[in-house]
Amino acid sequence: MILAHEYPFSMMEHVVFNKFMKAVSPFYKKINRQTVKEDCMSTYTIEKRKLKSLLKGPGRISITTDLWKSGQKIQYMVVTGHFIDSDWVLQKRVLNFCNVPPPHTGVIIADALSKCFIDWGIENKVSSMTVDNASYNDVCIRRLREDFSLRKRLSIGGKIFHVRCCAHILNLLVQDGLGQLGGVIDVVREGIKYLNNSESRLIEFAKIKKQLQLPSRKLILDCPTRWNSTYLMLASGLEFKDVFPRYADIDPGFHYVPTDFEWMKVEEVCKFLGIFHEITDMISGSEYPTSNIFLVELYRIKELLNEKALDPFEHIRAMAGSMSAKFDKYWGESNVLLSLGAILDPRYKMFLINHAFPVIYGEDAAPRFMAEIRDILYELFNEYVDCHVVSHSEQQRQVVKKRQNEGSTSSSKKQKMTAPTVLTGKEKFHMHVSEIDRAPPEKSDLDVYLEESRYACDAKANLDVLGWWKGERLRFPILSRMAADILSVPVTTVASESTFSAGGRVIDD
Questions:
Q1: pTM of the predicted model, to two decimals?
Q2: Tell me: the pLDDT tens digits for 216-242?
Q3: By the 8 A CB rule, do 269 and 166 touch?
Q4: Is 347 helix (H, G, I), strand (E, B) or coil?
């Protein structure tokens, strides 16, 4: 109960609490705070040991990290590990939540992360780091990349090590778009603020809503640093646009009535933000893979921006132009992780790459990027092939060594010479099969996977991509291992409820 509800240890010494426990059970004996603290730390140690064992699984581990600020302005760093377990379930575990004293430089953060990795025994298993665009993160990633490279622990030269938080980039796009509107947002915001400042005003506003038979939902006032709240504010205002002029007729102090043209602007903005809101919510999930689903949404965004760049309304063209510039800044070059994730989704394979790249990168640059992604795909797969061969060889050596040790022990007990160790028929067959496994097949897992037709399903259906790979792991033993590591990489650093904040995350007291 103490751990689940985060109660203070001193609660065990509260008079009323002890009376309650005595009423529940006459056999209850008072426990002091020190005993409870020791029990909690013991529980923590046991759970940490279990998690360490889980982290020793065969797959790689992806890391997300961010800084959070408490009400006392103290900075904390949260470190979360993401991986696919032996049952092909996506796991997310908070590995550390620690105070990081200023200055919050990239070097200090990198050192704190390195200590965390060593503490959990995963310093040789980290595959990627998903972070936002803060300048200190660039320094941090560069330092960690150099450290991992020296120990030769990065796949394909670290091409997928640094993952920029896609939700953060989407937020920058939307904020740039909103900046092109200015006045109309201020009019709606000030109008709602005026109404919310008086209960009597809200009552009169509600009466008009009822007369017009409009929904009884409330007006929403936004927080300027949270773009989704601005979207919700504009959407709620648009829903009650007919109420604003009628309320102005009965309240001479209400001067916040947008014109029909301004409401038209609001309607277009809501269409824009509605799509971004949907996509951001989708990629912020933590219970399912996200590295495989964002490329198709990136294609959707680029196509929308291209379409709106030719819109008949100037303000829409301005929004699209500003957002396109930000899009090209962050996604103007091929994103390796998003592409690999899409390829390893059986619904897409190379088909999505061939379809989306000309729209995202242009007809001229697309062929170069497609060839680049294909080369990286095979480069990564060949690394997994090499690891597979080494693993099989090591397993075989262990079998032989175990058999020899058993023979040696038996000889020692009998204290006499015995015949050389003879492998059983099953062990000989296993050695034969292992030799076959090590021999390069005519076609690799990857060749077969790409040549087969894509998994056909309804466009609106949600495929359990991890379940699909779990079912195909015997057909694609090497490729399935690679897929697990790529699909475990999250494309955002934040949970859905805090995704939309442009400011720093805050820990509630």
A1: 0.83
A2: 888 999 887 778 888 889 999 999 999
A3: no
A4: coil
